[in-house]
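Technical note accompanying the year-one report. For the benefit of new consortium partners, we illustrate the data format agreed upon in the data management plan: each record pairs a sequence with a structure-token string. No post-processing was applied to the example shown here.
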Amino acid sequence: MFAAAASLAAIIVLIQLLIFGIVAAAANIVGGLILFPSKLHSTYKRFLKYLLALGAGFMLSVTIFEILPKSILLWQKNNPETADELYVPMLLIMAGYLLTQFVEHTIAPHFHLGEEVHSDELISSRSAYTAVGGLLIHTFFDGVSIAAAAQLDRNLGFLVFIAVLMHKFPEGFSIGSMVLATGNGLRSVLTSTGLMGITTLAGVLTFYFVGSNITSAVAYALPVSGGVTLYVAASDLIPEVNHHGGNRPGVSISVFAGVALFFAFHFFLHELLPH
């Protein structure tokens, strides 16, 4: 009976993760496709800075209030003999942060989250596809973040999914515009954004099937994921918000709205839903 219940619970988690992975992957593709219908493109560009700001506040909140504390608590639980020594989880957080820094500024230096590369600003195909290749590492860890969080706590998994989803549209938009700037068209945009989406789903499934069979895998993966999300929130999204915001107070207020949205979700998941 207990085995059947555990098996059912594992199936439910897998279905949940599949839905999260597929929706996140689709958001990458939709972000790229927005470039084509001109009316939708111009409308999206008007609201992009607010979406970035909202995502920044939400992701920063998820990272600081959920991922990082739970990474440390999980490490202490798994290593009670060295519970006061937090060098390893902090080092893993730093590793995730620096890995993202390396990918975005060494392997994919042309990429700026949410920014459009105009078609008259032609870049080489090699530069564009090097950026896409580098970002595949980033999107893979998006998937790992979702899966690691969900396997630790269902509610945390949902919050991390929402945080990831919020930057998937701007990510697809930026990559799509970069591919268009090489002189390529719709098929290449679909290929690039689709590949990023598939890699996100691959990160989810890889951690679910491989990580769940490795003792303490979540204890190692969660702090690395925390470093990745911290980088995206603090070093990708916030600078873009400051760049796009200018003298528009509404953009800065949207960051606080993102924080408020996190607490609203948090309250709903932890206080109103049955456990």
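Partners are asked to follow this layout when depositing records. The chain has a mean pLDDT of 83.
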